[in-house]
Amino acid sequence: MNPRWISAAAGLFPLTARAADGPAVLGIPVDFILFAATLLGVALFHHHTLRVALTGLIVISLYKIGFTGFHEGTGLAGWLAHMQHEWVVLSNLLGLLLGFALLARQFEDSGVPHALPRFLPDGWKGAFVLLVMVFVLSSFLDNIAAALIGGTVAAHVFRRRVHIGYLAAIVAASNAGGAGSVVGDTTTTMMWIDGVNPLSVLPAYVAAASALLIFGLIAARQQQAYQPIVLTERGGPVDWVRVGIVAWILLAAIATNVTVNTRFPEVSDAFPFLGAAVWVAILLAVPLRKPEWSLLPDALKGSVFLLSLVVCASMMPVEKLPDASWQTAFGLGFISSVFDNIPLTALALAQGGYDWGVLAYAVGFGGSMIWFGSSAGVALSNLFPEARSVGAWLKAGWHVALGYVIGFFFMLAVVGWHPHMPHKDMTAVPPAAAVAPAH
Question: Which of 1, 141, 177, 239 is most open to solvent, judged by the fewest CB atoms within 10 Å of its CB?
Answer without folding.
Answer: 239
